[in-house]
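Predict the 3D structure for this chain.
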Amino acid sequence: MLPALDTIWHSPTLFTSIKSSAPFNGKVLAQCPKSSTIAANPTTPRESPHGSNGFALVSPACIDPLYSKPVIDSEADEISPGPHHHVAGHFSNTSTRFNFYFPPKDAWGGRFFQLAYPTQSANATEETIGFGLDSKAYTVQVTGSNGFRAEAAAASTQHIYGYVYGGSGGSNQVIGGIENTVGVWDGAVAMVQAVPISAPNSPSIRAMAGLVLRNRKTEIQDSLKPGGSGNPLSIPSMTELERSMLIEATKLGVPIRAWEQYDEVADSSHLNILRNTIIQPSDPTYVEDFWSKPGYLGTVDSALGTTMREAVVDFNATVEDVQLDNDGKLVSIRLDTVPEAVADVYGYDLGFLGADDFKLRTISGTLSTANYTMLFTDYTADANDATLTKFIAKGVKVHIDNKSSVAMHSYYRHQIPERAGFYGFDQFRTVNGTNYPQRTPDTSKSLARSVSGGNHTGTIGCKLIVVQNLLDSDAFPWHADWYRSQVKRQLGDRFEDNYRLWYNDNAEHFYEKRPPHRLALIVPYNGIYQQAL
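Done. Predicted structure below.
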């Protein structure tokens, strides 16, 4: 049995089919007449009945057929992090779950908050719930997915003030949501904003600079620490190639002060996750082209091309030992031989050798030369075919190389956006376009559209505050400025009343709890985006 409407006293649309003490009947909650897409009274008026994705705007009167059958699974009164009524459920025939966390009636201020992120759990953290309670709001959270449809389905109300917020990949969903809905949310906060050039370009840029600058790591860090010059470009021992690469990365958006935490900025793990899951499936000939065709650093006779080729690891080995976890999943293998030194631990492909040393299909992992070990335990191995890992056994001959990973380091040079305003890439433009072969499709653009469900046109349907951080080496500070220009172009004289961009100094990308050594260098910004809400 489900609660009566007076128990869920603010009656969001999600529950309007619930009859007093009656089970949910599973029927569609509302139809979506053509007029409903513009019938709402949004804070930011819409001049078109269509969103940035080209489809009709979603309004509270429109129920997405995929999410038309919410089912309540349980409810309970809970006390942590403060007294609240917890309603949990799911949308029928989907894997999407939702949770509502309602404050006591006398502690409700007529609003709700909703956090969005593509891979989040449907269960809100105590911090998220507590922030809602402290703000006299109920909290909504749904299972993370691409696009904004699940968020919009859970948020639709008749009518309660609602505010959606999300950081990094979640900012894509926020923007997709408010560009393609009307009257669903009254305001939004996008933190550490991603844009249609962010991934895989940003991880690629950082990995490339990290590769070229690795021999100057200590000197760069010393220059940025207290007592240093503050200017890594003034390091006397820095070569022309190293200096030009640091300038290139800085123009593209990597904050120069962020290099004090060199290993975090140069980390190529994110690039290799995208390599295995996004880039190779969508652009399968890139690696071969990189190492064989003119215009790519794999073939160019230059100092940078030489550096790329020298970073390649390519060898055959025999498996001496195999480690599995309790579920029989491959954890690591020990090899009979490894190179003396490698530039990076990430990005190695292991191929099984058949007749005449012909390399069969591959799996990916990390390489520890000190231990003669290849590991398969981090996210870069998640895309591995489990059926292949079962063939690894003692005595099996394998081929290991990082040619694909090295090629990905310069992928950003082959993804120069055609869209106007991305001024960080102007350094690669010529009067005839660019000197670098360009790849199709535009992976960054496609990925952003997939995650957001929109096109980042700036046609926002409610008030928006963007919170961007000046020490962020993942979501570059200027990316938010680019989106600001899109909103200004769309809203015209309504811009000042509906948009704000806040920059925080000494704050980085992550809003989750950070290790103590990081807190000596950065300022957590959770309270700042909460203030924006």
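Residues 477-491 form the longest helix (15 residues).
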